[in-house]
Amino acid sequence: MGSARPLRSTDPRHLGRYELTARLGEGGQGIVYLGTAGDQQHVAIKVLKVSPAEDPQAGKQLAKELAAAQRVDPFWTARIIDAEINGDTAYIVSEYVEGPSLREVIQQQGPLSGADLDRVAIGMAGALVAIHRAAVIHRDFKPGNVLLGPDGLRVIDFGIARLLDATSTSVSRILGTPAFMAPEQIRGERAGPLSDVFSWACTVGYAASAHPPFGDDYIPAIINRILHEEPDLGLLDRRLREVVVACLSKVPAQRPTAHELLTRLRDEESLRPTSMCSVVSSQRLMSVEGDHTDHTDRATATDGRPSVPHEPAVTDLRPRNDVMRPSAYKENGSAPFLKNDILAPHASRIYDYLLGGKDNLAVDRKRAKEAIAVDPLLPEVVRENRAFLQRVVRYLVTECGIDQFLDIGAGLPTQDNVHQIAQSINDKARVVYVDNDPIVLSHGRALLADNDQTIIVNADLRDGRTILANPDVRRFIDFDRPVGLLLTAILHFLIDEKEAQAVMRELCEALPSGSHLAISHGSADLRPDIVHRVEEIYRSTASPAVARSHDQVRKFFGDFDFVEPGLVWIPWWRPEAGPGQDADLVWFLGGVARKS
């Protein structure tokens, strides 16, 4: 949310119960400060350039608009925590997002393209769905209001322009940023949801070319282009270009709604999730269900204003108390942090690339290629790990009668996910995926929107108690009956040995008799020089890993009874067609054990 700068002598030091510590930025709407609450949680405080005390009616309108803004789902947006709209000072307190804006990223690193651009486009569309669903209109959607934080993309300042519009002091002011405003806003007409869609398209165009589609020079020239000329979309990809062009129609009724936009982006071949999960951690793709009719703001309310359309409900499988916090990521080192690209390289996307998937970024591909240079058979290693998981699931369903699975560290598989295999054998099988990577959560929810036997929940492997107590886990998993607990290619990210063993004890103790535990894990017992060099590469990612010996991995199973052939190199665990020619070089151990 911008770089912090020292407070000026004229800046307040306290606002209500909040202590102000730095300036984050200033614009036409007001000044943004970094502050702390009583719990020392960082917050962003925007002091608005309005004075409700001068206009009591405006104060009432501010309260009404603020109540609507607080209903916006925080998954894609910076959550509004508090506000003060009485007296001489009006301010809004929101969740502090530690990261640059999309505008800053483009200015510093240049335009986005390919999957990076697709994911940003999808994330911003998801934010609009959430905003419009709460009957709020952003009115100032632009690159500066899109933040790329450590736990994902967040849209900020939704509804702030409307709050300013509610005051008598803002009547003569242009509310919005001209280069990203819709024609109807420029003409002085009241903005509607489709105005935000136009601004979304301008923002995508900016991200793809580093300049707005209608220019960023002389304001009258920009306005003339928006009203009368066609946009300059540079080298924007054909499929995304078609969507953007539709959103830039001069006629609001001809633009798609945010819901239609998100649906179309999901359905486009180049953007369609090809794995269980995708979307850069700054993109958390919402699954949309419900009415699929043509929702637009073509209708007019009785007061002559465009009505806010009813958006279909957003399916959000997260328990409401599990919102991810940047501080938690910093503590456990498991989140993708911003570095020289939108994100630092992350193991889940490196794994996806090694499997031949498309849900990865340039930084991930770079690290993956470095690892392949060390071990050219690394793609074969991860493919064997994937095949091991698939064989395990088939075995547990067909031979052990397991019909409920808890898959912790779901990752980014590209084909034959656990629920697909299990439910192809037993259509009543239930699967709970657990992960704390926003990318995994994003496409997981998108993929599972129509599957009432499978969910994905947000939790950290390090906190087994929270996983087991999660209400969605409890709703889907009956811990009075045998459970299949899957921990494939995940425990090596728990570097501390005592912590890893403690986590396993906690999880295993919760399993009822007859449950089965499946683990795969990188091991340095085979090809130690190669494995340790790969470890070094992973230490430069957001997901450092450690290889363990056979004896160390064996301890994770506790006193469970191994099924044949025990803990072995994964190509030798019940192969269906015999090990491949490079099986002797696959350095992952795998096994399945039963709780007596």
How would you characterize this protein structure?
The protein has 20 helices and 18 strands. With 596 residues, the protein is an alpha+beta fold. It has 2 domains: 14-315, Transferase(Phosphotransferase), domain 1 (Orthogonal Bundle); 373-594, Vaccinia Virus protein VP39 (Rossmann fold), CATH 3.40.50. Strands 11, 12, 13, 14, 15, 16, 17 and 18 form an 8-stranded mixed beta sheet that branches. It has a 6-stranded antiparallel beta sheet with strand order 1-2-3-4-6-5, with no helix packed on it. Strands 7-8 form a two-stranded antiparallel ribbon. α13 (378-398) runs parallel beside α14 (418-425). The N and C termini lie far apart (53 Å).
Q: What secondary-structure arrangement, pairings included, does this model have?
A:
Elements lengths: L13 E2 L2 E9 L3 E7 L5 E7 L7 H14 L10 E5 L5 E6 L6 H8 L4 H20 L12 E4 L2 E4 L4 H6 L17 H4 L6 H17 L9 H10 L9 H10 L10 H10 L19 E2 L25 E2 L10 H7 L14 H8 L7 H13 L3 H21 L5 E5 L9 H8 L4 E6 L2 H10 L6 E5 L5 H6 L1 H6 L7 E5 L8 H14 L5 E7 L5 H11 L11 H6 L5 E2 L5 E2 L18 E7 L2
Parallel strand pairs: 11-12, 11-14, 12-13, 14-15
Antiparallel strand pairs: 1-2, 2-3, 3-4, 4-6, 5-6, 7-8, 9-10, 15-18, 16-18, 17-18
Helix pairs in contact: 3-6, 3-9, 6-8, 11-12, 12-19, 13-14
How many strands, which pairing sense, and closed or not: the largest β-sheet?
Answer: 8 strands, mixed
Number of helices: 20
The share of residues in extended strands comes to: 5-15%
- The helical percent reads 25-40%
CATH level 1 name of the largest domain: Mainly Alpha
Total tally of structural domains: 2
Mean pLDDT: 79
Question: Which architecture of the largest domain does the CATH hierarchy give at level 2?
Answer: Orthogonal Bundle
CATH topology of the largest domain: Transferase(Phosphotransferase), domain 1
What's the total number of strands? Answer: 18
Poorly predicted runs are 164-175, 269-343
Derived from helix and strand composition plus strand pairing, the structural class reads alpha+beta
CATH superfamily of the largest domain: Transferase(Phosphotransferase) domain 1
- N- to C-terminal distance: 53 Å
